Each structure stands twice: as C-alpha cells, then as structure tokens.
Amino acid sequence: MGNKNKLVIDHNVADVVRKIFDMYVSGTGSKLIVEYLNNNHYLSPSGYRKTNIVQNENKTNYFWNATTVCDMLKNEVYIGNTVQNKVSVVSYKVKKLRKVEMEKYIRVDNTHEAIIDKDIFEKAQIIHKERAKKVVKQYEYLLRGLIYCKHCRLANANCIKSKS
C-alpha cells in the first residue's frame, strides 16, 4: 500500500469480476448473471464496500442489478486502463453534471494491473453492442427503475410470483 495514487487489485472480489465476464462472454445475459450473483449471496459492490464481505448467507439489502453488471462490463478499469473526464460540471455555481462525449474522454492505457484479459473484454463489448441493438423500449414508464419485485428483487413487471 505504498502509493495511494495507484490502483491495486482487491483479490477478495477479483474472482467475482472474472466470473461475471466469463459468464457474459459464454452467452449468459446480464439478468441471469444478476440472478446467479443474488442466489449465491454475493454482495453488490456497494454492499462489499460497506461490509467488506464478499458473500453473506444472511439476509442483506445489498443486491445486484443489471445496471451494475452492465456498467462493470463496459468499465475499462478491469483491463488496466484509466478513463477520466466522463462527466463535467455545468458551472461552478450549478452542481449538475453532464456526460462528456466519448471522443473527449481522457484515456491512459496500462496504468495498473489488469483483472480481465483484453480479448475477453473486447468480446464482451462486441456482445454488448449486438444485444443493445435488439433491445427497444416499447413504453417509457414514469416509475421505471423505482419499483422492484418483492420476490425476485428486480424491476420486473413480468415476475410470476408478484402476480399471484
């Protein structure tokens, strides 16, 4: 822990990250990955930060969701790159943030040790682009993402258990 400005792999959770990428590249979708992680009692990244526990058999509130998995699959930090300038402040008076175009990102390659092989990461990006084209929202719901199923803990209106 000599240099506080250098990213270091947390070996407690590195296997979980590898498992997520391996499952995705082998054809498992993000929702099924979330189901696997929650069924096997893996704590979400925020749960791990708060408790420093990777798996917890006891009931917790730190569940995974598809957005977290998708964000992880797109994050270059896992291949050893650092990407900055993704968001900017509108002004110093206004605290609102806005997204910056990808072309203006500041990307530095090989700044730290990688968890994921670059080939696996690239395969995941290709799969994600292919799947993103197929997903088309039919309706834009006002409460989308705010309401979750009591039984499966997902924002899934089609859950069989919630209808009974």
Q: What layout of secondary structure does this protein have?
A:
Blueprint lengths: L10 H15 L4 H10 L5 H7 L14 H9 L7 E3 L2 E3 L7 E3 L6 E3 L9 H17 L25 H4 L1
Antiparallel strand pairs: 1-4, 2-3
One letter per element, helices H and strands E, the order comes to HHHHEEEEHH
Question: What structural category arises from helix and sheet content?
Answer: mainly alpha
- Beta-strand percentage range: 5-15%
Helicity level, as a percent range? 25-40%
- Report the C-alpha radius of gyration, rounded: 18 Å
Distance between the termini: 53 Å
Would you identify the regions where 5 or more consecutive residues have pLDDT less than 50? none
User: Strand arrangement, largest sheet?
Assistant: 1-4
Largest sheet: 2 strands, antiparallel
**Which term fits the overall shape?**
globular
Please give the count of helices.
6
Total beta strand runs: 4
The oligomeric state of the chains shown is: single chain
The average pLDDT value, as a whole number, equals: 84
